[in-house]
Design goal:
The protein is mainly alpha-helical. It contains 4 helices and no strands. It starts with a helix and ends with a helix.
Length: about 90
């Protein structure tokens, strides 16, 4: 029963997140393109951050072993982020 509900509930949750991001500065076509590439049992996180505690953000993201697909941060900060997510 849970697996039957996971699809519609998961899809609704992704739809709600995508809807809330559309008017906040993340390109709609980028969101759709990335969403279409997601495999079953995977997820994507879109972060739109004005300012943050870098160490805290890295500590929160590190357990998920994510990868950076696109960013507008400086190349130096991006390199630190990519290295932190590798470990």
């Amino acid at each position: 029963m849970a697996s039957q509900l996971g699809g519609p509930i998961g899809g609704a949750a992704v739809g709600a997140v995508i809807g809330s991001l559309r008017d906040r500065g993340i390109d709609d076509s980028f969101i759709r393109e990335l969403s279409a590439q997601l495999q079953p049992d995977s997820s994507g996180i879109f972060l739109l951050v004005q300012s943050a505690d870098t160490e805290q953000v890295l500590a929160e993201l590190r357990p998920y072993k994510g990868r950076v697909i696109h960013t507008t941060i400086s190349p130096e900060v991006e390199a630190v982020l990519r290295k932190a997510l590798e470990h």
